[in-house]
Backbone:
């Protein structure tokens, strides 16, 4: 089993949610750390964990980001970190890999399952570091995590959708 540290410069943690029930708004968290314990010959024993700084949210709209950091949404002063810790890995490297774990947002922990593409084969970069990469996706209901703020629209519906798609594109560097 090898341990890999998340390379935040070559990784992204993004999300999308419907705005006004008509179009998706995309955002990202810019500060993330984590590790992956992985052996391609024994994927069932893999373990992953990550920490995301809630205040690093970026939707390319400063007013919206300020609101998202407030008690209405992430309440970053009280809950500065979102976390994920895997509990099980099932499937195979042939494209049906699933990682199930505990996602904690705003002090609420729920089990989620990530559909994973990868990890890639290990490659050596020009500096002698060994790296692997993977992509993953999951969907959550934001209300399940206490993110309940919303506003009714005059024409019916709500300002912010409940379904949130989380997308991960991650690169890891082998330790040791």
Residues:
């Amino acid at each position: 089993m090898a341990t890999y540290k998340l390379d935040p410069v070559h990784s992204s943690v993004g999300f999308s949610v419907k705005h006004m029930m008509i179009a998706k708004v995309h955002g990202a968290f810019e500060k993330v750390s984590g590790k992956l314990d992985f052996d391609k010959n024994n994927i069932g024993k893999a373990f992953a964990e990550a920490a995301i700084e809630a205040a690093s949210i970026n939707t390319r709209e400063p007013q919206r980001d300020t609101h998202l950091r407030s008690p209405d949404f992430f309440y970053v002063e009280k809950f500065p970190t979102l976390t994920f810790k895997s509990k099980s890995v099932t499937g195979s490297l042939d494209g049906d890999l699933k990682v199930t774990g505990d996602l904690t947002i705003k002090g609420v922990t729920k089990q989620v399952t990530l559909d994973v593409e990868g990890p890639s084969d290990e490659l050596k970069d020009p500096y002698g570091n060994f790296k692997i990469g993977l992509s993953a996706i999951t969907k959550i209901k934001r209300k399940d995590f206490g993110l309940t703020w919303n506003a009714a629209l005059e024409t019916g519906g709500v300002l912010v959708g409940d379904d949130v798609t989380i997308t991960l594109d991650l690169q890891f560097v082998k330790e040791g």
Observations:
- The mean pLDDT is 94.
